[in-house]
Every structure is written in structure tokens, then in C-alpha cells.
Amino acid sequence: MISLLTIFSSCQKAEKNIQPADTTVVYTMPEESAPHEGTWLQWPHEYQYGVTYRNRLDATWVKMTQALIEGEKAHIIAYDEAEKTRITNLLLKAGIPLANVDFKIRPTDDVWVRDNGPIYVKDKKGQLVIEDWGFNGWGKKADYQNCNLIPTKIAADQHMAKVDLNAVMINEGGAVEIDGSGTLLATKSAILNNNRNPGMTQAQAEAIFTKYLGVTKFIWLKGKAGLEITDMHIDGFARFANASTLVTMDYDDLLDWQVPEDDINTLYAATNKNGTPYHIVKLPLTQNNVETTYGKKLDYKGSYVNYYIGNKKVLVPNYNDANDAVANRIIQSLYPNRTVVGIDVRNLYANGGMIHCVTQQQPR
To answer: Which of 123, 217, 267, 350 fits as disulfide partner to 183, beta carbons 3.0 to 4.6 Å?
Structure first.
């Protein structure tokens, strides 16, 4: 008798060799601005990079939690019970009520829940399902064993159906952008890279994304492998504000971000699945190179594109820079029914990420 495990394993192996002709949509991912049940945060801790690392980031997580709970739950993943107690005290000291805060005790390697956390999709019956894509520390550049288990643990905690894609594709949440109407935007450098998916073709990747995210139109940029730990995630410089609007930067700022010229031209010429050009909204970079709160001078400017859309608030990375107000104003115009909240990310940015990188939505 063939076991269910054998059948499942065979299905996974077959999936790796999926043919481009298989374009069946099985699951659909709601876009970020759709109503949330809550937002997931992995709180910084001392167990990977030390107490100083943790302490320098706490204030950013406190501010994100404070903003989010006005419109949805904040699902906080704490490393252990001691960390839960510490975080609870931080929130209470800041005057933040805990009614909309939910804790899960799970060891993590780091804070980047956008990349390792659960991806919530809807099946054909409209039921929420958690997809557990493979996560390998951006091509085995960092520890990942704890973080890779988070989606499975959350699915068990929530008694929610889970689709195990670990053997299908390594895919971080920050590597893909969807417009909610069937189009996906991504860089090849962060997906079709031998440190994630050796030997995978573009056609195979597209078939997988169609099946599991519900997208049928693809805007591929080349990206730049090896530029930084993510191999150039898309959410640092280009995002969909909605089904018709693409948020990015002006030409010179994209060059400053080291986006290849061909990619810039592709981005500006992008169309949706119906062939309609997107309305392009351009955010500035910071005027100056970023300096952390503890005086470390970074040799690069900050991006505002990496913001997060909550139910009532839009959390925008801020850098104590003159362009904070400019970017906040532009983003506010995109979301008239939400309130922009600037979140100081200078210390987080020194570690390579911003607001979108450390948040993950759970649709309602």
C-alpha cells in the first residue's frame, strides 16, 4: 500500500518539473491593502546578535505595534517566555493597551518576517490557507533554520490548512510584488538564482506563481545578484500601491539604488495583464546618507518605497531626513482613507531592511 507521505513526496518532486503549459490558478493571494485580520511581527531578541542589537531595534517595534493595533491585531512572535515578559513591559511602559496584541512563543533567527513568515492565500472556496514557501536565509547567507519553521508553527497554532512548498520553491515574501489583479513584479536575481532555486527556468517559476499566487502576467527585472544579502528584492525600490499604480523612484535615484538601466526602462514601461500602463508615482530617496541614532554613518541613502499598508495606518520608513515629510505626503495622497505614520527605521536600516521587510499581513 502506498502511503500518503509517498504520494505527497511524489507530488512535490513532480512540481519541480512543472511544465510551462500548466497555468491553472489554484490559490489567490489578496493584495496588501485588502482588509487585514492582523499583522505579524518577529520581535528582535538577543539570542542571535546580542543585547545591543536587540535594544537598538526595540523602539521601532514599539512604534509599529502602537500604530497597527488601532485597526487590527498585532501578532507578535517572541523568542521565549522571558522575551514575552520583556516585550509586554515595553508596550505597557509606552502606554500601549494589549487588547489587540497576540503573542506566540517561537524561536526565530532574526526579524525579517516578510521573507520567512506565512503567506496567506485563498483557495477556490475563498477559505484562507497558509503557504509555507522555502526559506534558506537568502541563499544560505544567514542562519535560517528557526525562521523557516515559522509558517508551519503558525498554521498549527491557528488550526489552518497549510500548503508545504519547501520542496517546490525558495521564495521570500519581499522578492515578489502583486497588484491584486493578476500581475506579479519581481527580480530574477532574487528568485532564479542558483543559491535559491538551482536550474529553475523562468517558465517553471511562472507556472508555480500562477498556481499558488493566482497571477498570470509577469514583469521580470534582471536585478543584481550579490548586491546585498537579498540579491536585490523588489520591495526596496518598486511596489504596487493598488491595481493601477506603481510606486518607485525617479531615474537617477534608481541608478543610485544600483538598479540596472534596462530594468528602469522595463519598470517605467510596465503594463497590467490587460496591457494598460500603470500610473507611476515616484518617491525620493533621502537627501542625505542615513545616520543611525547611535551615530553610525551609513554610506547610502534611505528608500521610502518599503512601506506597509495596514487597515487604518500606513507605516512609512523615516530617517530623520528632510525628505521624510515629502515622502510621507506623497504616500498619504495614495491612501486617503488611511493615516500615514512615519516610523524611525535608522537602526533597522543599518541591518539591511525597512518597514515592509519586518511586517506580514494576515488577510481578514
So the answer is: 217
Whether the CB-CB separation of 115 and 358 falls below 8 Å is answered with no
The number of domains in the chain is 1
pLDDT in tens, 225-258: 998 999 999 999 999 999 999 999 999 999 999 9
Q: What is the CATH number of the domain that holds 116?
A: 3.75.10.10
What pLDDT is stored for residue 327 in this prediction? 98
139 within a domain of the structure (yes/no):
yes
Spatial separation of the C-alpha atoms in residues 40 and 200, rounded to whole Å: 30
Whether 16 is in a domain gets the answer no
Q: Is residue 338 part of a domain?
A: yes
What is the amino acid identity at position 187?
T
- Find where cell 492565500 sits: 121
Residue at 122: amino acid letter = K
Enclosing domain of residue 240: 25-363
Please give the C-alpha separations between residue 356 and each of 15, 303, 361, in angstroms, as whole numbers: 30, 11, 10
The low-confidence residues of the chain, meaning pLDDT below 70, are 1-23
Q: What single-letter DSSP state applies at residue 270?
A: -
User: Could you tell me the pTM of the whole model?
Assistant: 0.93
Tell whether 15 is covered by a domain.
no
